[in-house]
Write a structure and sequence with these properties.
600 residues; 6-stranded mixed sheet; two-stranded antiparallel sheet; 21 helices; 45% helix; globular
Amino acid sequence: MDGAIPTRCCDIVMKGGITSGVVYPKAIAELAKEFRFKNVGGTSAGAIAAALAAAAEYARVSGKGAGFARLEQLPDFLAGKTEGKPNLLNLFPPAKPTRRLFAVLTAFLGDGSTGEKSVAAFGALLLATPPLTILSFAPAVLLPAVLWDQLAALGTPAIAVLLVVELVLIAAGIGLMIAGNAVRALAFTLPKNRFGFSTGMAAEDRRLPGVSEWLHDEIQKTAGLDPTDPPLTFGDLWLAGEGVADREEELRKRENDPELRAINLQMITTALSHGHPYRLPFENRRFGFRPSELRAYFPAAVVDYMIGHARQGDEAFTGMNDPDLHALPEPWDLPIVVAARMSLSFPILFAMVPLYAFDYTLAVNSTAPTQPEHCWFIDGGLSSNFPASLNEENNVWMMERSGSGTSDRWRRFPERGPGAIGGYVGAVLDAIRNWHDNTQMAVPGFRDRIAHVKLSPDEGGLNLKMDPAKVKALSERGKWAGVRLRERFGAAGADRPGLNWNTHRWVRFRTSMMLLQKMLRQTAEAFSASDPVYPSYHDLVNRAADKDPVTGSWWPRTPSAYRDSTMVLEQFAATFSSSAPDFEEKSPQPGPELRISPKL
């Protein structure tokens, strides 16, 4: 696991799920026995596991310590308690203004009957906003107090009527208290705290660390670094175990070519202001930050490092002459804990992370950037989430034959009854959020390398109060997921009947050749096609310098070397696309698509 560096590489992607992430540490440690992690990806809670996996690999290839051994012990901490509360819950400390409301919601977590949880939540709600509680139940308290001396003179029918009125007042008080706290939370408390209970940092009056502080410390120790050392960055991963003469020049090369990176860690976050996801670290240099804001999200050492490594020469931000506004560091200088927290911003649980950018469609920025605006980032799983048995081995499933992965992923919900509307809304949101991932899981060459871990309704997700036995059970399932992947794709899989590394590569070859042939066929048709008004691509590439389109800096006309290469491609496309065999015949199904999409 630690020590000798394996020669075979493994790419790993971990999806989100908040507490479901406890399945990953032992799975990672198991795979590390036979593979070196080259490309590591994660979203939401999976971003935490991805950051720690990359840190452990950094320690191994740099000879800095036993990172994977430390990572393997992480479930023991997550299953434990500190000061009488589960460590999982302790990692998500609510901000001071949200504590009482947070207590109401967490009362529904953990073991216990629905009745017990409801009583606990009601007790917490009574304390959430004392003035509102008093106002809500004042009529129910005042009515018997005012009429107490007259009860003896009233007859039984009158007392019965008063009892009904009292029950109505109590019910109305409960309704008013719930509605009032909901309005206060949604209209004031949560917006004031950037639509989340926690920033990830512990409040000043709290001794235990929040997830941001804990994760920074854990990344440093897993990577074999001292907590006082500079935070582990993406650039450290890219150059792990290698000595280079010119660090910045080499980092710029590796920014443009991920294949050159020793460890290629990537995560996903969602820019709510832009309405689409971004890949971390950012490849575009458009964002800035205010240290005064980020200190509420990250330890001082991390923010200070970002200030000291703010991107130089960015006139958009430096031209503002604002000492509290800095350009975000270069991609390689971004601490990985910052990317992990930006990906782990589960809506409502976590406050949105604020960065800054310029909207150049506004007149005020049309000639020069003068008005930076908040650009809000939330959970990467919002836009791209994929990245009870005594024998936990039975709770891990992988397809065992090529056809068994073609079936759809079912999400069932009650068609009637109290749970119908909740199940319906949940299914709609799942389809909106996960449709791409759900369809990707059926694609040949992808479905056979996915380990499915079974979870019951009280496991994973937002169950921050899972008891130690459940946390350990989930981590054991993670271990078995790693075992299953090793059995299939490790050295032992070469002699394994059924699906293994050879069958996986053959399926990828068949689908890739089918897509390549189809693309080249379309290329050949596009080069030969023309209409009465516009020339063919062949004529366009070979046009004279003074012919439309005049492309300015792109090329007045195509340089000869590019024309020659294009002619080679044109001839090859015509030959290959029309040759036998037809790679689409009996190709693995369902067939994938090859298309251009924006780079995040």
